[in-house]
Write a structure and sequence with these properties.
Number of helices: 9
Oligomer: single chain
Helix content: 55-70%
Distance between the termini: 47 Å
Largest sheet: 2 strands, antiparallel
């Protein structure tokens, strides 16, 4: 796999020019796509008519990005792990297990190998290019699951924060 980095503003504008997007609509698309080449290309296809992007066009771009990102997920559990990564900025294996409600070793290792994420000192973080559309899709399509993930995240982090505060209170 070859990770794709976000395009800088000049390259994003050049890509949109290739898609025949009129200059007055490029800034909005560049901001929405965060430099992601696929998002720029998809939005550029919708905006090549000269009209600004409508909310339904933005929704279509998000749908296509989520479809592209989730297509590599081998199972529903892997897709849930992706969505958990869109809610928590950084996941360790324990946090992922709490958020998805089960053993997360395989899922955590899969996320760590994914081109959509990077390993950090404390776990795995989805790149913002993947996190934003996954989160937007979850917010729109399954707000109940989003709330469940958020509640599980809070339930897992509050004890960690309290333990951290207690351990430093005696220093």
């Amino acid at each position: 796999e070859l990770p794709v980095a976000p395009l800088d503003e000049a390259d994003a504008h050049a890509l949109l020019a290739e898609c025949a997007v009129v200059p007055e609509h490029r800034d909005e698309i560049v901001a929405m796509a965060s430099g992601h080449p696929l998002a720029l290309r998809l939005a550029g296809e919708h905006a090549s008519t000269g009209a600004p992007l409508h909310p339904r066009d933005r929704a279509h771009v998000v749908d296509e990005l989520v479809r592209a990102f989730a297509s590599d997920a081998p199972s529903a559990a892997h897709r849930r792990a992706l969505f958990a990564g869109s809610v928590a900025r950084t996941l360790d294996e324990s946090l992922l297990a709490t958020m998805i409600g089960g053993d997360a070793t395989e899922l955590f290792n899969w996320l760590g190998r994914s081109a959509l994420s990077e390993r950090t000192e404390v776990g795995v973080s989805l790149h913002g290019l993947a996190r934003a559309p996954l989160f937007a899709d979850l917010q729109r399509r399954d707000p109940d699951f989003l709330r469940e993930l958020q509640c599980r995240l809070v339930d897992a982090l509050v004890p960690r924060m309290l333990a951290s505060d207690l351990s430093t209170a005696h220093d």
